[in-house]
Amino acid sequence: MLQVTDALVLDESLISERFVRASGPGGQNVNKVATAVELRFALGAAPLDEDVRARLRRLAGRRYLADDDVIVVEAREHRTQAANREAARERLAALVRQALVRPKRRRKTRPTAASKARRLESKARRARIKAGRGKVTPEG
User: Fold this and answer.
1) How many Cα atoms within 13 Å fall on the side-chain side of residue 59?
2) Taking the CB of the first residue and of the last residue of the chain, which one, N or C, has fewer CB atoms within 10 A?
3) What is the count of structural domains for the chain?
């Protein structure tokens, strides 16, 4: 079971893991041991609301979302399989937690009369400054 929040726990049957060889630090060990983990989360079968699923798809984007509605999370930053496994699971949980937060709706606002007046005054002041930069003609 993957604890996402106090109220939400994801079933292990929705998550599959595959261990592959990683690049990076580790010396000879990196060539022999499959320490990198590829976590696959079946989004379609998850017990989530449809709006949460849609937000999760949007958050995952092309980086994490596979064609078959599966979120793929990779971790290869640690030298051990266990640490990479934990990192991938935490990254998946963080992604789901982020999708659970409903974004606030934007309220349309209009500028106040005072702000419009300030804007017009600053534009007029700037216009006067620029008008003073014209060519100087000899008076005569």
Assistant:
1) 22
2) C
3) 1
3-class SS at 24? coil
Q: pLDDT tens digits for 36-88? A: 888 888 877 777 878 888 888 888 777 777 777 788 888 888 878 888 888 88
- Read off the pTM: 0.65
pLDDT for residue 125 = 96
Residue 134 bridge partners (DSSP):
none
139 domain-assigned: no
Q: What does the pLDDT read at residue 114?
A: 97
Is residue 124 in a domain? no
The CA distance from 94 to 47, in Å, is 17
The reply to whether 48 falls in a domain is yes
Site of tokens 């949980």: 93
- Altogether, the residues listed in the chain come to a count of 140
Could you tell me how far CA 14 lies from the centroid of its own chain? 22
Residue 39, Cβ density class (10 Å: 0-12 exposed, 13-18 middle, ≥19 buried): buried
Report the distance separating Cα 35 and Cα 38, nearest Å.
10
> What residue ranges in 21-130 does DSSP mark as E strands?
36-42, 70-75
Cα 22 to Cα 37: distance, rounded to the nearest angstrom? 9
